[in-house]
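Design request, tokens follow.
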């Protein structure tokens, strides 16, 4: 029997650059539903809630700025404790 690696959960974020100092971010649920847009500015963070078995992550303005315009798929590893 082989041991499986940690499970990964995917989260789709939609990113729109509104201005040099303002990015709009939303999490996409299901096929095409976008949930609650949030504007992020330098110094702000965006809270990413992955699956309940994963740690919550906070993305900085710079991390979001480095993402592509449109949909971005992030993977989160399931925590093991």
């Amino acid at each position: 029997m082989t041991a499986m690696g940690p499970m990964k959960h995917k989260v789709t974020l939609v990113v729109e650059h509104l201005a040099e100092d303002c990015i709009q971010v939303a999490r996409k649920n299901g096929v095409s539903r976008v949930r609650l847009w949030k504007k992020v500015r330098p110094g702000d963070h965006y809270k990413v809630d992955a699956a309940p078995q994963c740690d919550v992550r906070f993305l900085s303005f710079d991390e979001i700025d480095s993402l592509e315009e449109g949909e971005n798929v992030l993977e989160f590893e399931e925590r093991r404790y």
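Comment from the thread starter after seeing the answer: thanks! The radius of gyration is 14 Å.
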